[in-house]
Amino acid sequence: MSEQPFDVIVKGAQIVTAGASEPVEGDLGLTDGRFTQVGGTIEAGDAEVIEAGGLIAMPGAVDAHQHWGIYNPLEEDTVSESRACAQGGVTTGITYIRTGRYYLNRGGPYMDFMPEVLERSNGRSHVDYAFHVAPMQKSHIDELERLVDDFGVSSFKIFMFYGGHGLHGKSDDQSEFLMTPPGERYDVAHFEFVMRGLADLCRRRPDIADGISLSLHCETAEIMRAYTEIVENDDSLEGLAAYSASRPPHSEGLAVSVAGYLAHVTGIPRINLLHLSSARAVEAAEKARVSYPTVDIGAEVTVGHLLTDIDTAAGIGGKVNPPIRPREDVEALWAALGNGTLDWIVSDHACCRAEAKFGDPADDVFLAKSGFGGTEYLIPGLVTEANRRGVPLGVIAQMTALNPARRYGLHRKGDIAVGLDADFSLVDPTAEWVVRAEDSESTQEYTPFEGFQMTAAVRRTVLRGRTILDESGPVGGPSGEYVIRPQT
């Protein structure tokens, strides 16, 4: 029993903490938006009481890979896709953003770009949010320190395949797509200089060094370009199987190897290998860690790559980069999750409405745009699959909350623990339901998860002590805040 005053008390929850082997039954005490008691029995007093009724309390997920504003205006996506976050038990979303085509459809310096990004998203999100930034041109390297100091951006990105591919396929005019200055190339040399710039920043600024990281989308443009031509002339392949073959797994593996070696020679302290999708990519990540032990190499996987394959995803709406893979790659990812090779799970949520997604003809995968939503299925889908596979829910909490929070400088997020932000969801682990895109808060009208049988559902999502979603849907207006990183 506690005599401490609380604003909100959650009674009778099965509390899941990061890494725990089993949930622990108990109450939660919340004060001023933070956890002030975890476990035990708390008398209600004058506090607001949430009756959990034995539901599972999961740490608020930190969905560290999203793309708000890529296909729709950022100000619109910030509203609708943050509501979808709450459906999936996500309380913090981190969006990748860059200059060039899509997003704001403009180039130039980030000192001009970021104020517009923040203004368009301000006051619109239902969850807390942050941004990763991609240095697309040489001058952006000179802005790295100011991005941290002026805008609280401490994580950065490289798209390794943009050297010879656009977002959706072959591209012969790189500078037009990326809106980079004349004469500049977005290539391996640029990647090296970005790494050197961040390594130098970490040496000069030990006060922020632990919060700085570089993420890489690991695919090799030259291999993809050659295999795309082969597959497009092969009538035996179609749909997601054709797209997977056109961007083969060894394209991922080679890019991972290059990323690891460049990190080693430049001295950058830590890199993140994004959305690994195949056994080849996992193998390369494991070898890179052995070969370059001084580099802290993190590895990410998406819920889409864990739950779907080329045969079970619902149509070419499942086109994404890197592709959805055959079932054997899915099983390799689960094995890598079990042995510690993979570090966090995300959605790679990129809302692309049907009118933009599908080409003419609509069944041609090479005419479809890349990316789809999925944040609304993050916790329900992973709890469903974890229960089926016998994976402890503490592992899911570790990989959806604590690990990405620590990696990306969100030191007040990531677990159900005294002193942290009171971000959590209440999950029914026995709820049976079928995924229908029409039930999502996202404005995307389709989903590759269509028809999937779920056995877990988010019943309530709480952000900093305030309910933002209950069984009726989103509650109240946008209350999410932009998070300055690294948090103190």
* Strand coverage percent: 15-25%
State the fourth-level CATH superfamily: Metal-dependent hydrolases
> What is the CATH topology classification name?
TIM Barrel
Q: How many helical elements?
A: 15
Please give the oligomerization state of what you see: single chain
CATH class: Alpha Beta
Low-confidence sequence ranges: none
Average pLDDT works out at: 96
Q: Could you give a quick summary of the protein structure above?
A:
The protein has one domain: TIM Barrel.
Could you explain how this protein is built, in words?
The chain has 488 residues and is an alpha/beta fold. It has a single domain (61-413), classed as TIM Barrel, CATH 3.20.20.140. Helices cover 33% and strands 20% of the residues. It has helices at 74-87, 110-121, 138-141, 144-151, 174-178, 188-204, 221-232, 239-246, 249-266, 279-291, 303-307, 327-339, 354-357, 378-389, 393-407, and strands at residues 8-15, 24-31, 34-38, 48-51, 56-59, 61-66, 90-97, 128-133, 155-159, 213-217, 270-273, 296-302, 344-346, 424-428, 433-434, 453-454, 457-463, 466-470, 473-474. Strands 1, 2, 3, 4, 5, 14, 17, 18 and 19 form a nine-stranded mixed β-sheet that branches. A five-stranded parallel β-sheet has the order 9-10-11-12-13. It has a three-stranded parallel β-sheet with strand order 6-7-8. Strand 17 and strand 18 (466-470) form a beta hairpin. Helix 9 (249-266) runs parallel beside helix 10 (279-291). The longest helix is centred in the middle third of the chain and has 18 residues, at 249-266. The two termini are 31 Å apart. The model has no long low-confidence stretch (mean pLDDT 96).
